[in-house]
Each structure stands twice: as structure tokens, then as C-alpha cells.
């Protein structure tokens, strides 16, 4: 976990779908989980739109190096930082390295996370429960805390929650619980920072083809028809989610704060 994108037989679609228009020109974004999946697609899209990108990842060095290369091919600059953001000190080091490289932070895009399927609540160990919360929600607190002194008026934070926060997921109890926490964190932090001109929003993807699910995030027997229960009848691709993060990070969404976007294949959920 969370798995290497390079090892997947069918590669996720990360490629931006349209030319850039400079919407992140002069900006610096930290993107967690940017080595693969939604994070990679978002990093490359931000680079195309002019942002310099700090790519935070857990241990997939090959994937992170590829994302960096792809960002540079877009004519931007990128750095990689191998870290465990469930540890407060690593979050601080990520912010320090970004400032050393680029001198500013304009957007926090918090996508990194993990999930572990269990058919029975009694199968969830204390260690797994702690780890899932550390990776998925503690990390967002730690990175936001470290970055807060450096965020100026006009900065944005976009967190990755999930459709499981709204629908539940019987075999993903701990994961779904963290996603509920992320939505509450997003709305509460928005209220705290809005007077300082910092907007906080979130994206709640549905089933998206990334390394997370086929590399242990879902039982193998669930993967044959995974995503086909959406109204669109398929799982989504990372490059169908990345534009939601871009929209909430740039001035296109200047009148939005404390909100959640739902790229989920047409499933109607409460906002």
C-alpha cells in the first residue's frame, strides 16, 4: 500500500485534457500523494497552468520521479519530497523544503491517503485504525499547521474527501470515518480562515482508477466490476477529477469556501 502506478497493467489517465491558460501562473502548490493517481493528474495539470509544484509522497520513488518529469515537461518546476505526513515533523519538513525551493506557498492540495478493507468491524486492529487516521486526517492537520504562517490572503486549501463520507462503505469503516472527519475539518477550517482571505474547500471523488484500490485498497474479488454501479457505469479517471482541484485552487472559484465538489460518475449525494 498504496501501490505503484508503474506496476499497473492498465495505467490511469493522468493527461490534462485541454491547453493551459495560466490560471496558476506565479503560484506554488504543495500536492500530497502526487506521485500517482489523482495526485499525479493534479500536479501535471497545475504545472500546465503555470504552478511550481512540491510533490509529497510516501515511498514510491519511481512514480514520484515520473510525476516530476511530467511537470517539467509542461515547462514548470517541481520538487519531490519522500515523507510520512502522518508524522508532524515530516509535515514541517515538507513546508520547509517547499519554501527553500520556491519561497512561497499559495495552495495546499491534500490528496494523500490510504484504505484497508475489512468485512467485519472486529477485524480492524488498533494499529490499522490509528494508521488510517494518521494518514488521512492527521496529515491534513499537520501540513495545514506547518503552512499556516506562510499562507497569505488569496491562498487556497483543497482537501480530498470521498463519496464514502456521504454514502458510507460497509467494508471501509475506518476510511469512511476519516473522510467524514475531512469534510468537517474542511468546513470548520474554512470558517476560521475566511476572514484572512484564505479559502478552504474539498473534492469528494467516487470510484477512480488509481493504484489505491487494485493494490490492496479493495478485496481482489471486488475489482472485476468495480465502479460499474455508478450511473455512468464505470470508474472515473484521475484526469476527470484533477480539474475540480484546479477550479477550487484558482480564482475561478473566488466566491466558494467551505464547499465540496462531487466528481463521482453521476451519483447524487447530499452536499
Task: Explain how this protein is built.
- There is one protein chain.
- With 271 residues, the protein is of the alpha/beta class.
- The chain has one domain: Rossmann fold (3-Layer(aba) Sandwich).
- The chain is built from eight helices and seven strands, in the order E-H-E-H-E-H-E-H-E-H-H-E-H-H-E.
- A seven-stranded parallel β-sheet has the order 3-2-1-4-5-6-7, sandwiched between helices.
- Helix 1 runs parallel beside helix 2 (61-73), helix 3 runs parallel beside helix 4 and helix 4 (126-147) runs parallel beside helix 6.
- It starts with 27 loop residues before the first strand and ends in a 10-residue tail after the last strand.
What attributes characterize this protein structure?
7 strands; alpha/beta; 271 residues; Rossmann fold; seven-stranded parallel β-sheet
Topology:
Blueprint: E1 28-32, H1 37-48, E2 52-57, H2 61-73, E3 78-82, H3 88-102, E4 107-110, H4 126-147, E5 156-160, H5 164-167, H6 173-193, E6 199-203, H7 213-217, H8 242-249, E7 260-261
Parallel strand pairs: 1-2, 1-4, 2-3, 4-5, 5-6, 6-7
Helix pairs in contact: 1-2, 1-8, 3-4, 4-6
Second CATH tier, the architecture: 3-Layer(aba) Sandwich
What coarse outline follows from CA principal-axis ratios? globular
What share of residues is helical?
A: 25-40%
Provide the β-strand percentage band.
Answer: 5-15%
> Runs with pLDDT <50, length 5+?
none
Region (Disordered): 1-22
InterPro entries: NAD(P)-bd_dom_sf, Sc_DH/Rdtase_CS, SDR_fam
GO molecular function: oxidoreductase activity, acting on CH-OH group of donors
Protein name: SDR family oxidoreductase
